[in-house]
Amino acid sequence: MWPSFRRLVPGGLRWRLAGWFTLVTLICTAIVFVAVYRGTGTQLHHQIDQEIAGDASELAHNLAAANARTPSQLSRAATRYITGQPFSASSTLLFALVPGVGTSTNRPELFARKNPDNGETVAEQAQENRLSARLLTAADGYSTQALPDVGNLRLLKRTVRVAGGLGVAVGVGEPLASVAHAQRGVARAFILAGLLALAGALLASYLIGTRVSRPLRRMAAVAARVDAGDLHPRIHDAGGLGDEVKVLADAFNHMLDRLTDAFAGQRAFVADASHELRTPLTVIRGQLEVLAAEGNPSGEEVRRVEGLVQAEIARISRLVDDLLLLAKTEQTEFLRIQWIDLPAYVGELWDGMSLLAVRRFELGPVPQGTLRADPDRLAQALRNLVGNAIDHTAPERGLVRMLVQAMPGERIRFLVEDDGPGIPPEQRERVFHRFHRTDAGRDRASGGTGLGLAIVRAIADAHGGSVSAVSSPEGGARIELELPGFTPAHPRVAAPGALAPDGTARAHGRAAGAGPVKAR
Length: 520
What we know:
The protein is α+β, with helices and mostly antiparallel strands and 520 residues long. The chain is 51% helix and 18% strand. It is built from eleven helices and 15 strands. It has helices at 2-8, 13-65, 71-83, 122-137, 177-227, 243-293, 299-328, 342-353, 375-391, 440-445, 452-462; strands at residues 93-98, 102-105, 141-147, 151-161, 167-175, 338-341, 360-363, 369-373, 399-407, 411-418, 466-471, 477-484, 486-488, 506-509, 517-519. The strands form three sheets. The chain has a seven-stranded mixed sheet, with helices on one face. A five-stranded antiparallel sheet has the order 2-1-5-4-3, sandwiched between helices. Strand 4 (151-161) and strand 5 form a beta hairpin. Helix 2 packs antiparallel against helix 5 and helix 6 (243-293) packs antiparallel against helix 7 (299-328). It is rod-shaped and about 155 Å long. The two termini are 91 Å apart.
């Protein structure tokens, strides 16, 4: 039942907005109607009470001024006053009940015992007589009585003492038909005005809903095209919309731009990864085919092919490990943060990295303090930076230097620079993209995967830091890795491998074919 009903009822934003707007208008109209309806009745009741109170006071005053000494004289005086009033017989009731004499009134039919009228039963007439008798038995003060052939009557009854100690009950009544008539008029006027207001509210809210929902429908159409795989449509002319809708449109367009870039990057990443994997696989396949083509290969040839295959397998393994590491950077458990004693940490790390190749290694002074970071990931990032510098410098004479600087705001900056060819300005941002190489041929020859700097940026982002590439004073490249969470210590003591007081750097290196040496 309910699903069928929902299908019959329009469910768009325009109709929902029109429905709610109409409902609010209906509720407001109903509240105003109740207030006016009740206010009209209360005002008319108060006016009638004032009128019958004045009539009762006038009647009591005239009876007191009649100087009647007996009940009969008092009754005659009351009758003269009542019959002499210019009241319409169908609008106002006046009566005076004199004990022992009877009732003087301008509506005697309400107090006399009547026989059944035409079409009335005895029981119905007896009920009317009982209702009429309530006028005489009503308590002093204001009351509302239901009378036959009159309806509701507003009654004021008072007991008056006149000269000679005589007591008389006077009553004045006014039918409430005028109040009911006025309230019915208010109700009719409000029903007519309410219908017109509801029709206007429904039309206006539908038009407003149409205008408000137009940009949302455009967004829905664009979203449908995006869902179908087309990322090119955008929401244009957003300046003519409301501020809220314009903000939504701008955010929607920005989201589509990011999705477009993400999908383009994903496609490029898949293509680059496929290419990087295809190259060593092609080499392995070619070498195996060459080996298989020989009927009786020599041991030297087998060892040569084995060496090539092992080298390509190692390259594939490094590529897969780097790809897995980049995938893990998006996970919350990627980092295991702990406090690091920075001088000892950098000194030990530098001692190990200076044995990777024959270069002029220099380590600047390391600020005393502790760093809140993941030691394994930070070591991986620094090794990638140093390894990148090693790959782009000449053996033995090439310079690889690392500087560590304390920055404002409890931040630390690692600078790794070399005297190699450097990075062209237009590529200093792209070098942190996956599989980007400034010299593709040399990097593949050196066994690089093109993911080293991308991993450095991922580790920096995970720590809440940043990484950038600039030119080095030595003419090569400088990579700056900046991280938060550094707490300096007092006073500063030179760390192992730091610059000596005279400004000379502690160098680590080894000559070709020699063991590690340290010199100042």
